[in-house]
Design a protein that fits this description.
alpha+beta, 2 helices, 7-stranded mixed beta sheet, 179 residues, Ferric Hydroxamate Uptake Protein, Chain A, domain 1, 3-stranded antiparallel beta sheet, single chain
Length: 179
């Protein structure tokens, strides 16, 4: 550095470079997040102006991350911008999932997560990331060892997903409220 030069531009330049590098490293290390749906057809499931009346069933999904509940939000599958309703959706928080379709077909937990715009895999559920083997899934109180995306959504299917310890036997969901 010459005697008449100020160290400020050099320091500022280095800080900008370090900030850019740290941003690049932190964003490239994080898994890609799915975009929140805005009315486009997802997994062959359209977003219609009203609920389907042919096929109407309900399920419950509970997620815990290291023993703490992760809330399933209201209005999954109800994009406000599009003013429509996917055949799989929620009305209120708490994990009660509604399948209300204009035709009979098989729906899966993977379809629900795709409509939610959140990841579901052997090592991730929503915002939680765990190492292989640390995602425990239960269907109707029984351990499920397969791909969680393939769990079929049938009437009153009760799904519990535990991401990381401590693990506890899930409490059965019984508050179907006549649904």
């Amino acid at each position: 550095m010459k005697a008449h030069e100020s160290p400020v531009p050099r320091v500022a330049s280095r800080l900008c470079a370090m900030l850019a590098l740290s941003t690049l490293v932190s964003t490239s290390a994080a898994p890609a997040r799915a975009a929140t749906p805005s009315g486009q057809t997802i997994d062959g499931i359209s977003c219609d102006r009203s609920e389907g009346a042919i096929f109407h069933i309900h399920q419950h999904v509970a997620i815990s991350v290291h023993g703490k509940p992760l809330e399933i939000p209201s209005d999954i599958g109800r994009p406000i911008v599009a003013q429509c309703l996917y055949w799989i959706h929620t009305h209120a928080p708490g994990g009660l999932v509604h399948v209300e379709a204009p035709k009979f077909r098989t729906f899966t937990l993977g379809n629900f997560f795709d409509i939610w715009g959140e990841p579901l895999a052997a090592t991730s559920v929503s915002s939680a990331r765990v190492k292989r083997g640390d995602l425990h899934v239960f269907v109707n109180g029984r351990a499920y060892r397969g791909d969680p995306r393939k769990i079929e959504l049938s009437q009153h299917t009760d799904i519990a997903i535990e991401a990381g310890p401590p693990y506890a036997k899930p409490v059965p969901f019984t508050d179907w409220q006549g649904q």
